[in-house]
Amino acid sequence: MKVIVMGCGRVGEMVSRLMADDGHEVVAIDYDQSALDRLGPTFKGRTVLGVGFDREVLIKAGIQQADAFAATSSSDNTNIVAARIARGIFQVPKVVARLFDPSRAEIYRRLGLATISSAAWGAERIRELLTHRDLDPVLAFGSGEVVMLSLEAPPHLDGRLVRDLSIPGEVSVVAITRDGRAILPLSGAVFRAGDQLHLAVLAASLPRVESLLGTL
Question: Cα(64)–Cα(50) distance, rounded to whole angstroms?
């Protein structure tokens, strides 16, 4: 996949490295040469110096052939402008914009732009860790509305069915790891002692999951 990352601060640098290490063709854009230099000689992608929403800079980065575009600068306005150009003018299939102001996220979702609010995600994550320390989320989606949990099945789940722990729209048993192998369980699958459960949960339903795990 051909990926352009606009903004090479801490987040952009990390995204660029991760995507390049995964084998994707990555181009990092930043107006500050020192920011691009932080990627170092081991970076497997290439860099372009310039303003990330400038048409010529984007073309130089290969946006006309890009499969994905991530706007990760420290400016919401810059990220949104760049993301809208990538989606609206160059028709890049996958576009994600980083936002610091979560109140603006819904506006841009309506424009078809996926947004990540580090402030909203971080606040939600802290709340989860403080109030649900026995259910430590390993992944969050959107702005933290849905989380992924990974936990060992409590002993009292042994012999119970997957459907007993599933609540439509709130809790879904996504996978079970058993004896080192992962399976996608049907609703009639049986839990066994020692199973590692992977649950997708509505964040607002975490207290209900705690209750289910304690009373089933």
Answer: 17
**Are residues 130 and 101 part of one domain?**
no
User: Which parts of 100-205 are beta strand (E)?
Assistant: 114-117, 137-141, 146-152, 171-178, 181-183, 196-202
Range scoring the smallest mean pLDDT among 14-28, 34-48, 137-151: 137-151
Provide the whole-model pTM: 0.61
Task: Assess contact for 93 and 68: CB atoms under 8 A.
Answer: yes
Burial class from Cβ neighbours inside 10 Å (0-12, 13-18, 19+) for residue 69 reads buried
pLDDT for 136 equals: 64
Note whether 199 and 113 are same-domain residues: no
Assign residue 164 the CATH number of its domain.
3.30.70.1450
Q: List pLDDT tens digits, range 10-24.
A: 889 989 999 999 899
Largest CA distance in the chain: 62
| Containing structural domain, residue 30 | 2-117
Residue 71 CB-density burial (10 A; 0-12 exposed, 13-18 middle, 19+ buried): buried
Task: State the Cα–Cα distance between residues 5 and 157, nearest whole angstrom.
Answer: 45
Amino acid at 84: R
Q: Which residue type does 88 have?
A: G
Integer angstrom CA distances of residue 165 from 31, 152, 157, 206: 51, 14, 9, 13
The 10s digit of each residue's pLDDT in 172-212 is: 999 999 988 999 999 999 999 889 999 999 888 888 888 88
The structural domain count of the chain equals 2
- How many residues does the structure list for the chain? 216
